[in-house]
Amino acid sequence: MGWSDECSVEKPADPCQVYIFRRPGEHEKFLPKNVLPKDKSGSISLMVWGCFAGSHLGPLVSFRGINTAVTYITALRDNLLPFLKTLPNLKRDFIFQHDNTAIHTTKITKEWFKEQAFTVME
User: Fold this and answer.
1) Full-prediction pTM beyond 0.85?
2) CATH architecture of 2-120
3) I need a labelling partner for 43 at 20 to 30 A (CA). Which of 10, 73, 87, 95 fits?
4) 69-83 as b/e, with b when 16 or more CB fall inside 10 Å?
5) Helix (H, G, I), strand (E, B) or coil at 45
């Protein structure tokens, strides 16, 4: 079984607090381009996506701008599919689970999963 979800990490506008978002394993993890804040009513918000399958942890990905069905499918195509290829003994009866957020239940998202021959838990 595989699972994924998004999470919004928010920081108040208080300048005394500092958050650092890193991409482990990459040479550029401390560069400003890898810390992607979003101003939201004086606070900073960063949307991230992650996945796992069994005991195998997938990548943690940050979204630029607003998360939509298109950005979700892009995250799946660019991150979930390569991650699944690294798994030993991935079974054909693999079941994927995500919640019923609007971007997960759109027609284009459902069509993408069908094209990939994924079984998605209802």
Assistant:
1) no
2) 2-Layer Sandwich (3.30)
3) 73
4) bebbbebbeebbeeb
5) strand
